Amino acid sequence: MRRPETETEPSDTDSSMASSQSSWQGGRRAVRHQRGNSENAYTLKTMAPRPSAGPGGWLCLLVPLALGVRLLHSPAQCQSHAWMQWFLTIAASGMALESLCFYVYAFVKTGILVKCLVSLLPGAATSFCFYFLAQTSPIFAVIVGFVLTVSYQHLYISTMRGFEKSFTYGEASVFVQGLVLFALSALHHFWELFRDGTCDASDFENLNKIMVNALFWLLNFCIILLMFPRMRKPVAFYPLLGGLLLAVTCFPVVRPLPLIVLLQFLLRDYSRLAILGFYLLLVALTAVTVSWQLGNSTKANTRVRKIFHLLIVLVFVPGLVYECALLYLATGVALAAFVVLEVVRLLEIPPFAGRLAEAFRSFKDEKDAGQLALTPFCLLLGCSMPIWLTPCPCSGGDTLALLSGVLAVGVGDTAASVVGSKFGRNKWGRSSRSLEGTVAFVASILLSIWLLDFFGLVAMTQAKWFASVFAALNSALVEAFTDQVDNLVLPLIFYIIVGLA
After folding, report:
1. CA angle (116, 119, 120) in 5-degree steps
2. Among 4, 109, 252, 321, fewest CB within 10 Å belongs to which?
3. pLDDT tens-digit map of 364-408
4. How far apart, in whole angstroms, are the C-alpha atoms of residue 266 and residue 281?
5. Residues forming beta bridges with residue 464, ordered by sequence position
6. Residue 444 — φ and ψ, nearest 5°?
């Protein structure tokens, strides 16, 4: 997100945000939450959301809306995944409803009867949808519906408490929804593996199994570190990391082993090797950029940080156009690398923690108020989510929708930041963003789509052009006025609107 022309100049909305934040904090301190019955009642401790930002509760609706939109355009070759798509969409909707009910329960004064009804509503509604829409058995629907919503709420509260000042309420909802949906997908994959065993499949299906397996073991790696403090010491951390690498490369989710399948996939095609080499070159450029910035011993400004936006455009566009399966795998590898590096930094594991801490201090912005390096995570997640949320993304379907994150964040937000910081003179009312930056946001996206259409990289129709213009305008207005992490929000909004075409 671009900064105002004078970076030390306070925003017009600072006083109203501070007042709103104060009222929310006052409400949190007086809240008691009860689920089911009085035996499970407990007092909500003060949760510390990211300062200088609103609650952002509306963000909890973005993931279920994105999944719901994709149900409208599921390709014929993905019919085998139709039930799982319905299941994940219902699960995401149930978690969004749980978030909304939690806000009502925690921060709105109501009677005890209303609180009980609000507590039971998400589980009941989710169970109802599982039974009638996903056509599950009644017992399965009730158990999964209530366990899902209750587990989500506890994980959500734990996230807000454990990572103080890192998330707003809405941002935490998006992160926890994604984590729970991944866990459900991983369990489904392992159940199919247990039921059917490893069998011959397409390249993308094999890579998907490998990526899900790798991220699943990474999740267990983080859980072990969380539950057993002794494992956070270097003498135990590095053997545990070695065990993670062994599980990722040798756990038999495909035949032959994942490492062999990966090598065969990469060495089979020279163009694939060329793109892989290009990716490694971009990684080297990233490392050089970070080293150069650290050598300057000054805090990175907006324009320096936007270099990473341009680099991610160079990663995603050729990958989606020419080697979608390789890009899909690369997003998982990048996410895993980010998580491991962040764990090393947070736990202060030598010898890399010091350098990582310096990089975090140099590149952090106002969104990185807590312990987590939220901005780079959200940049990767925002560009990758359209691919992850789309069933069969490499089946030659809607390339425009898959590019939603790249267009909204890599192109639009970058243009808005550069133009707004250099030429921005006319500010939006109640916002520090400039009209010139918003115009640059829309124009850069539409120009990029026109170039992609001109070179035959995307197939545009009149409906898609209308949806693209509408998505660009709406994303630009959200970017101008929101105080949420735009790297996370804008791709989902663009993806939802374009997906309706």
Report:
1. 90
2. 109
3. 888 888 888 888 889 999 999 999 998 888 877 788 999 999 999
4. 16
5. none
6. -65, -40
